[in-house]
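Data card: per-record layout.
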Amino acid sequence: MKTIFALSLLISATFCDVSHLVRLQQTEPSTPPPPPKPYAFGYAAGRFPGHIDRTHSEVSDGSGVVQGSYSYVDPRYQIRTVEYIADKDGFHPVLNKSPPPLPSDTPVVAAAKNRHLVQFAKIANAHNAAPGTVVVPVDSVAVNRAKDKHFLLYQKIAEEHARIAAQREAEKLANEGTAQPILLQQH
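The structure for this 187-residue chain is written out next.
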């Protein structure tokens, strides 16, 4: 019994953390770190193709000063941009809370918006009715054709289902006529 206890004590001591008992000798690196090198990078990314919801760009001048910015869409769907400088004194971010200005419409886009609003007003006025009355829309020629096509396809499918059901019923009756009864033996 004492042997098992001593063996388990020896094994547990092997896996114990004894780093606090050993003083690590602090040594200076024999090779000084290389000086910073200038660089620049940037990227734009999104959760699916064609959708950009974050960007990041950064430039280092090689003297240890890094300037950059990153943007993201916050949970309220606001674009947030953080501009920063990182130097020997630390990281210095500045949050730009004002969203970037929206682009102005080109003349073509402005004309299209205007045509849309005119058409919308025309349709809205056509559908205005006295309170309590119901306005039933009139089907266009294209809608009537689509309804006719749908009805014909529905009839074709219903006939096919009826044919299959009749065939299965006939097979069931044919099998019932030839089936032998199973006699269960009671003990």
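Known properties of this structure: The beta strands are 39-45, 54-60, 66-73, 79-87, 90-96. DSSP finds three helices and five strands in the chain.

See the next section for split statistics.
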